[in-house]
Amino acid sequence: MSENASQQLDFDDPRLANQLFGPQGLNLRNLEQKSGLRISHRGSSLSLAGEDRAQALVANLLHQIYGLLKNGGRLLPADIEYAYNMLDQDASVDLSRLFNDPVFISSPKRSITPKTLTQRDYVKALRENEMVFGVGPAGTGKTYLAVAAALSMLLAKKVKRIILTRPAVEAGERLGFLPGDLAEKVNPYLRPLYDALHDMLDFEKVTEMLDSGVIEVAPLAFMRGRTLNDAFIILDEAQNTTPEQMKMFLTRMGFGSRMAVTGDITQIDLPVGGDMERSGMVHALRVLKGVQGLGIIHFKKEDVIRHPLVARIIDAYER
Description:
It is a single chain. By secondary structure, this protein is an alpha/beta fold. The protein contains 12 helices and 11 strands. Strand 9, helix 10 (243-250) and strand 10 form a beta-alpha-beta unit. Helix 1 packs across helix 3. The longest helix is centred in the first third of the chain and has 19 residues, at 52-70. The radius of gyration is 22 Å and the shape is elongated. The two termini are 38 Å apart. Mean pLDDT is 86; it is low at 170-175.
């Protein structure tokens, strides 16, 4: 195909083609912006004009997404962008296999699937390794996907309970005295973990699991002296542990258990000597490198999953 040649794509179901193109052709306009192509459509056919590689990428994407729709899949507004970014990195990605293999389904309308190649590798690591470190910036889905994987294994009876924990370290501001009993005092630190649970399960179901102890949410200090068997244990904000706390946590693992350790080593909020060398996560990544049965996944800025408006706001601030 020459540089100036155009390519025509035909779709046999006008209804599905309309879903693929988006309302008023919104998906096609977004693809034009990302790829630099000129995309025009008439009925259920469209024409791609522009650089050869971009044409091949967009044609691959549209054919794969159309196949998903024909098999009863749903197309969310952001899926086109996620799919484009993945195929741009690796043209051999099978979107059908990726989108049809949800980590967790809480209702017929709710499924959680990886949105980037790193997320795909992370989910694979969570399934295959007894212990996984997820390292990277906020918004990359480290904790969210770990909670989803934990719920999936709980419902499949691969584990008997889920334990969610994080160090009680304030992030850049002093909260002062917190009223209430112990649970109420630590709740502000553990709120992101509750948010992930409530996003995947009904409020009543989360409350029932918490009350019965099937799901336990506790500060890291409560882990000392315990041996946790048949559990999926998630340590969030692990960059704010000390090396001593990290060693204490990692050695809590019992038989039949899984661990996920998540954190962002660029956001260390340790109150005294809060540098990279005092972070238990930084120390553990160096000490445990190459240990069998342990997976380490590094997320990048490109893996941040944001609402499109948030992405535009961040771009504006950066400019």
